[in-house]
Design goal:
14 strands; alpha/beta; about 20% strand; Metallo-beta-lactamase, Chain A
Length: about 325
């Protein structure tokens, strides 16, 4: 496995191949001075667990040499091994303050989240099918209690931690952070950017219950990262990214190109989010409901904020029109 070394800093990527479009689950060991930081923690499965232990062993470390865990965001493919690592020894786990409610599966947040999606899908014209999705335990809408982190999350409240600049990059998740090592020009960016596919901007409730403007946030987060001039971006999936600036600009361009296609469809009379989703995604509307509706709603919000479309509520459902 490739190791990255610069200015006495070292990164040992843990790359676990997958059979789906994500290509791989990536997390990282970062060595500096007398610390060994685990950045993200993969899925809670034997493939990720064995891969982590193999990388540690290859570099003459063990689990108890890990001194800290940093989490880019709350999704299960980034937090999976936290509890297993903590079972070997007690170390601090750092995440965005917003992540704490999710990672610890706070009951009030969980209840609010379910009601948020029930109302959202009703207003987007999803009808009975939307109701079924909200009740489906396999759906990301419902965060399973057995996936919670069993420790006190240390909230990242400063702009610097463990030698990293802390950068908020919401869009894919409301609590997503990037960790930038300025000296090395290395950026650990979670799922903000992947080389082989665009990252999904997930529509979710913010932690006060308001809907995130996920696609706009995604674009702003990408723009923010251009100014860093990172030489390497360590992504949560796929390859380590070297052509950082060109790829970021390409992803920003794709956001506007996709949004313009929606305008054409609205002009043809597809005026609800559900209608757009079924037309654009066909069978994926049912199979990947949470993700497809996130794409549709996020893009509609983006166009509305730009003043390109407007909406009107009729009998509890939002209808969209071109300006």
């Amino acid at each position: 496995m490739t190791m990255f070394k610069k200015n006495n800093m070292e990164v040992y990527p843990v790359i676990v191949p997958t059979s789906n479009k994500l290509s791989s689950i990536n997390f990282f060991l970062f060595k500096q001075a007398n610390s060994l930081t685990l950045i993200d923690a993969g899925l809670n499965n034997d493939d990720c667990w064995n891969a982590l232990q193999m990388i540690l062993n290859d570099h003459n470390y063990s689990l108890t040499d890990i001194t800290t865990i940093l989490l880019t965001h709350n999704h299960i493919d980034h937090i999976g091994l936290v509890n297993r690592v903590l079972a070997s020894h007690s170390i601090p786990v750092y995440a965005h303050p917003y992540a704490k409610l999710v990672l610890n599966r706070d009951p009030q947040y969980m209840k609010m989240r379910i009601e948020f999606f029930r109302k959202l899908y009703q207003e987007m014209g999803c009808g009975v099918f939307g109701e079924k999705q909200v009740a489906d335990l396999r759906n990301p809408i419902i965060l399973k209690k057995n996936k919670k982190i069993d420790c006190e999350i240390q909230e990242i409240t400063h702009n610097h931690l463990l030698g990293f600049d802390i950068i908020e990059i919401p869009g894919h998740a409301p609590d997503q952070l990037a960790f930038y090592h300025k000296e090395c020009k290395w950026l650990f960016a979670g799922d903000l950017l992947m080389e082989h596919i665009p990252s999904n901007a997930m529509v979710e409730p913010d932690f006060d219950g308001t809907r995130t403007k996920s696609l706009l946030q995604q674009k702003q987060s990408l723009e923010k990262c251009i100014s860093l001039q990172a030489e390497l971006i360590f992504s949560g999936h796929g390859s380590i990214i070297e052509n950082t600036i060109d790829l970021i600009k390409e992803r920003i361009k794709e956001i506007d190109e996709r949004a313009n296609k929606y305008i054409n469809l609205i002009q043809l009379g597809m005026s609800t989010a559900s209608e757009l989703a079924q037309w654009l995604y066909k069978e994926k509307y049912e199979k990947k409901f949470f993700h497809t509706m996130s794409k549709i709603i996020g893009t509609l919000d983006y166009l509305e904020l730009q003043g390109k479309i407007s909406k009107e509520m009729k009998k509890g459902i939002w209808y969209y029109y071109c300006n």
